[in-house]
Amino acid sequence: MTVSAAEQEKTGLGNYFIANYPQFSFWSSSYLPDAERAVNSPPRPGVPLGLYLHIPFCRKRCKFCYFRVYTDKNASDISVYLNAITKEVELLSKTGCVGGRPLDYVYFGGGTPSYLSASQLDGLMSRLRAIMPWDSAREVTFECEPGTLQKHKLETLRTHGITRLSLGVENFKPEILQYNGRAHSEDEIYRAFGWARELGFPQINIDLIAGMVGEDWDNWKRCVAKLLELQPDCVTIYQMELPYNTEFSKALRVKDGAARTSLDLIQPAEGTVSPAGNVADWPTKRAWTKYAFDELVKNGYEVSSATTVVKSKANTKFVYREALWRGADMFGTGVASFGHVNGVHMQNLDTWEAYVGKLEAGELPLGRAFPTTERDRLIREVVLLLKTGHLDVDYFRGKYGVDIRTEFREPLAKLDREGWLKVTGEGVDCTPEGLIQIDRHLPAFFDPQYLSSRYT
Ligand code: SF4
């Protein structure tokens, strides 16, 4: 089937955001012996170690969410899970790949880490820090849903050394928040942000989504104005996707009953009540993102990647992202969590029962893995670092012994010709237009065997 350029610009089902390489569909349980070898081998010199903790609980499920989350767990289930994840950190802390390294960065993601009560958080963090202290870590990030925060919960986080608070605001308009299934209200955003500032968290990030169902230009401009009033240190703007298995994806039917592919046109199902009745296409979402970036830059912010704008590039670092994109090691703990150790990608078992069961038996809950080659790691860094808008030729020469200008001559020439980037002397720089849509151009760097695969 030939798909027109216009059809490709519509928001279809599937992922477009590139989070890793090679893609998850190539990872397999048959590589688990490689993962076990990797965690039991000494670390490569100079590679930092991070810890990711997946807290998979949410008040309700957002209609666009495709993460492994639970909305029906009670206090005793949560206690079982927190015991399991603590056990996992304990098992990992004793593996050979730690090699005496202190944690360089920690990330509490979800789900909704702030769904946990202050006393659950206090108990969890006290136990974790006794096993793997993070006092010398450069960054400890904690994701929050504004409606779950109270001042004393934020005080607990501050006491435990959280340096970067990330608020999932997504939009300011109550009707849009509600239609898209978000649990928080607009008032809760201001309340949470005020407390966070008062308590002096070193860095506060706000997430927005360009293209939530019901979005329009007027409201998007209001959202950006409200964002500017708050003056967060960092702003992350995602462009709405409709991956498979979200509530929206199930509720929307494909025009003419065609097979569900990422290129099909999606229409609201009959009887569906939507504020705008449709999902914005990619050019509109890019225009909204560009508008927000431009407004923020006009107000003194700097673009630091395809999705983030910061108050000051020199002072507002995002260590987790930088480390991960440069191939750092990271223990991915929690159900279905992703990690990377000694060149091997790994993911935990993705059901509650299997995950908890393994840890109760005293074993690591690994589910699938992928051992990367030196070339895979080179390509992974090229595609992930391109999201910062810049590649440094010398960095790759020093680390991989290759000149990326010759190694990737064809894709670079193609993207240069099309106006998405420029090869300039010792660097590669995305054009502003290229950066805002860089994810869809990254497969140009993939080796042929990793092309044309569903991205899960
Ligand atoms: S808060 Fe985040 S993790 Fe939870 S349902 Fe919504 S999008 Fe998913």
Automatic annotation (TrEMBL):
The GO terms describing molecular function are: 4 iron, 4 sulfur cluster binding; catalytic activity; metal ion binding
Instruction: Look up the record and report any one GO term of the cellular component aspect.
Output: cytoplasm
- A Pfam family that this protein carries is Radical_SAM
Radical SAM core domain location: 43-276
Name residues in a coiled coil: none
Key words, A-Z: Iron, Iron-sulfur, Metal-binding, S-adenosyl-L-methionine
Per its Swiss-Prot or TrEMBL entry, what cofactor is needed?
Answer: [4Fe-4S] cluster
Would you kindly state one Gene Ontology biological process term found in this protein's UniProt entry? Answer: porphyrin-containing compound biosynthetic process
Mind telling me which Gene3D superfamilies this protein's record contains? Answer: Aldolase class I
**Top-level taxonomic group:** Bacteria
By its UniProt entry, which PANTHER family does this protein fall under? COPROPORPHYRINIGEN III OXIDASE (PTHR13932), RADICAL S-ADENOSYL METHIONINE DOMAIN-CONTAINING PROTEIN 1, MITOCHONDRIAL (PTHR13932:SF5)
Protein name stated in the entry: Coproporphyrinogen III oxidase family protein
